[in-house]
């Protein structure tokens, strides 16, 4: 078995908190973009601050990740799988940061006011008013969100593969505190 | 155990565990996005119905497609400031960008007296708490819910053979929606004003005004023209007579409206735009709109935005009217689609809205 080293407690808390938030946002996103029902306005009103919270947490998490290196993957994992794990984690970080920025940027380019919490707090625009850019970014928001969802599915499958098939301690390294065997 | 195989043998149950969780999530995602429920009314579904009912042209608004940009200012009286903390309603002047339009998805349709006319406004106070609205010159909205809106668009879509709505389809819609009968009659029998300048535009939907102390008041509002209302007359020979008229009007002198806020009485339906309110409701003159400039949509300031009725300042909030959420969603979708398309030259061209030589001085 792999030496039982786990992700640090802050890493695990951030990981699971953000896993719930990001999955929630993906579901809120596709649901609201396909509805004209009474929930639409409430969901968009929730989508914006939740997305910005993910942006802030993702930046904190990136700082934390650069400072505290993760436990090593099992030594017997084939190089291809290691590379895949690494690449997918980098892409997850990129998307966790890019997706909320694209959301914020597209509403800026569309010249919408961007209320965050009630009307009391508004975000400043981060891009100039440009309708063509708005249309482009709105499409990009969909494409990147679907990419993120696909990646999360693969990530989940991989985590379960480690936990149920290989039983090599990778899943538990994100679930519980590491203790010597 | 460095000799672990990459994929150790495991029971089918374990493999099921690996596959089931992502598969369940994927299914739930498809459901949330509406892909498993074709009957659900989506943003795209409502725009499709608009296209069938009123036509559509790439690059133009999916509804109220034929229009012109206007500009000016709004000056609050402060009379509504006790009901709403919105800074736009205070006693001060705020710049306005607006748009006059004809309902329907065809940007080159001919003007006619009985076509629904609209005013859209974006009030921009210096603190950034803007107020957007799109208001129509009908007394009530013909429907109560987004689904009814969708069904009415389909029922009134032109028959390809005659180019006119199929009377049988409309009869079936009416028969299936007896509660909408009064609203449809009120819309059909409304008095018609002569043009954009002497028309009254109504919010139809209800909103909540929120006072500084948090008190909420249900309201509707109307822009009531200062100039006297003239009876409508047709101009069969001029395809764009309504727009030409309002261009001439604004070039001649500023046009003004009073913002009349109606406070809901005890028996008024807040969440149903197809029902009128009592005649003796309290009315507040909240301010005056003055329009001084007019510009083609081509390059004009009303084109690259959408007048989403749920862009509201602090001090105003949506009511429970289900049409409001649907409008917010559909306007964003329409705005997204048209912004990615290349538009033809609009019916009202920059040449038509250019200030006639010689009148420049008394305008500025
Ligand atoms: C991690 C963060 C985010 C995720 C996972 C996410 C996800 C999504 C998804 C899946 C959609 C639906 C796309 C479609 O089906 O076309 C969507 C739409 C949208 N998102 Fe986000 N989003 C995020 C952040 C943001 C932020 C920060 C904002 C704005 C400040 C934002 C604004 C919007 C808007 C306005 C829509 C369109 C709604 C409509 O079409 O009616 N998003 N988002
Ligand atoms: C849905 C259930 C999820 C499970 C079961 C899960 C499981 C795991 C596991 C076991 C690891 C450790 C991998 C290793 O040792 O290298 C991990 C790491 C990671 N997970 Fe997840 N995860 C889930 C959701 C998510 C979501 C939604 C995201 C974000 C989009 C995410 C982002 C990451 C990232 C970026 C890492 C790399 C470690 C780091 O630097 O933080 N995970 N996950
Ligand atoms: C479910 C009901 C409704 C739907 C689906 C709908 C749909 C639309 C769409 C798609 C647009 C084009 C938006 C854009 O591209 O910027 C539009 C414009 C407009 N709508 Fe509606 N609408 C509805 C109800 C109403 C009501 C109740 C009113 C009046 C009170 C109204 C007044 C307007 C006005 C004035 C415009 C033109 C705005 C402008 O000049 O830019 N609509 N509508």
From TrEMBL, chain A:
Domain Cytochrome b561 bacterial/Ni-hydrogenase: 7-176
Record InterPro entries: Cyt_b561_bac/Ni-Hgenase, Cytochrome_b561_oxidase, Di-haem_cyt_TM
A Gene Ontology biological process term: respiratory electron transport chain
Keywords assigned: Cell membrane, Electron transport, Heme, Iron, Membrane, Metal-binding, Transmembrane, Transmembrane helix, Transport
Transmembrane segments: 12-34, 46-63, 90-107, 143-165
Entry keyword annotation includes Ubl conjugation: no
Entry's Gene Ontology cellular component terms: plasma membrane
A Gene Ontology molecular function term of the record: metal ion binding
Membrane topology recorded in Swiss-Prot or TrEMBL: Multi-pass membrane protein
Coiled coil feature spans: none
Required cofactor(s): heme b
Annotated localization: Cell membrane
Family: Belongs to the cytochrome b561 family.
Annotated protein name in UniProt: Cytochrome b
From TrEMBL, chain B:
Lineage top rank: taxon: Bacteria
Record has Metal-binding as a keyword: yes
Entry-linked InterPro entries: Catalase, Catalase_core, Catalase_sf, Catalase_SrpA-type_pred
Recorded GO MF terms: catalase activity; heme binding; metal ion binding
Keywords, in A-Z order: Heme, Iron, Membrane, Metal-binding, Oxidoreductase, Peroxidase, Transmembrane, Transmembrane helix
Binding residues annotated for heme, in chain numbering: 331
GO terms classed as biological process: hydrogen peroxide catabolic process; response to hydrogen peroxide
Keyword Transmembrane: yes
Bilayer-spanning residue ranges: 12-32
Coiled coil: none
Documented EC number(s): 1.11.1.-
GO cellular-component term (any): cytoplasm
Domain (Catalase core): residue spans on this chain: 16-363
Cofactor: heme
Any Pfam family hit: Catalase
PANTHER family, per the entry: CATALASE
Name the UniProt record assigns to this protein: Catalase-related peroxidase
Species, as recorded: Gluconacetobacter dulcium
Organism classification: Bacteria, Pseudomonadati, Pseudomonadota, Alphaproteobacteria, Acetobacterales
């Amino acid at each position: 078995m792999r030496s039982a080293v786990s992700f640090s407690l802050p890493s695990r808390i951030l990981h699971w908190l953000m896993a719930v938030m990001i999955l929630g946002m993906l579901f809120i996103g596709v649901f609201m973009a396909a509805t004209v029902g009474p929930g639409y306005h409430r969901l968009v009103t929730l989508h914006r601050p939740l997305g910005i919270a993910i942006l802030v947490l993702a930046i904190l998490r990136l700082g934390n990740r650069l400072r505290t290196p993760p436990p090593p993957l099992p030594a017997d994992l084939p190089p291809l799988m290691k590379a895949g794990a690494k690449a997918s984690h980098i892409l997850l970080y990129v998307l966790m940061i890019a997706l909320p920025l694209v959301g914020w940027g597209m509403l800026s380019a569309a010249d919408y006011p961007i209320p965050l919490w009630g009307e009391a707090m508004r975000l400043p625009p981060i891009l100039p008013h440009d309708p063509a850019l708005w249309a482009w970014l709105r499409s990009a928001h969909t494409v990147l969100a679907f990419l993120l969802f696909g990646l999360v599915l693969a990530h989940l499958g991989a985590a379960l593969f480690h936990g149920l098939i290989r039983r090599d301690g990778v899943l538990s390294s994100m679930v519980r505190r590491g203790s010597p065997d | 155990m460095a000799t672990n195989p990459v994929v150790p043998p495991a029971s089918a149950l374990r493999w099921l565990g690996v596959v089931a969780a992502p598969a369940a999530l994927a299914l739930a995602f498809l459901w949330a996005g509406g892909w498993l429920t074709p009957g659900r009314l989506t943003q795209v579904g409502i725009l499709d119905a608009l296209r069938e009912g009123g036509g559509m042209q790439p690059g133009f608004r999916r509804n109220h497609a034929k229009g012109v940009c206007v500009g000016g200012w709004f000056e609050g009286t402060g009379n509504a400031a006790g009901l709403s903390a919105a800074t736009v309603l205070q006693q001060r002047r705020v710049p306005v960008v607006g748009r006059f339009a004809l309902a329907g998805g065809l940007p080159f349709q001919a003007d006619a007296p009985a076509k629904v006319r609209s005013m859209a406004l974006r009030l921009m106070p210096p603190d950034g708490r803007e107020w957007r609205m799109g208001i129509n010159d009908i007394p009530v909205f013909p429907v109560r819910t987004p689904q009814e809106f969708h069904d009415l668009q389909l029922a009134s879509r032109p028959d390809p053979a005659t180019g006119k709505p199929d009377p049988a389809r409309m009869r079936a819609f009416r028969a299936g929606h007896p509660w909408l009968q009064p609203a449809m009659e009120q819309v059909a029998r409304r008095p018609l004003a002569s043009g954009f300048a002497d028309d009254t535009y109504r919010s139809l939907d209800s909103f909540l005004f929120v006072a500084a102390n948090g008190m909420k008041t249900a309201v509707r509002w109307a822009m009531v023209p200062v100039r006297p209302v003239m009876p409508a007359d047709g101009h069969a020979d001029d395809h764009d007579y309504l727009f030409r008229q309002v261009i001439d009007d604004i070039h001649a002198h500023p046009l003004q409206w009073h913002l009349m806020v109606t406070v809901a009485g005890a028996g008024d339906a807040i969440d149903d735009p197809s029902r009128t309110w009592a005649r003796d409701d309290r009315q507040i003159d909240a301010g005056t709109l003055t329009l001084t400039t007019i510009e083609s949509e081509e390059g004009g300031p009303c084109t690259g935005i959408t007048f989403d009725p749920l862009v509201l300042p602090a001090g105003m909030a949506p009511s429970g009217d289900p049409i409001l959420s649907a409008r917010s969603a559909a306007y964003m979708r329409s705005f997204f689609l048209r912004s990615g398309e290349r538009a033809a030259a609009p019916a009202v061209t920059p040449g038509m809205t250019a200030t006639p030589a010689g009148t420049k001085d008394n305008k500025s």
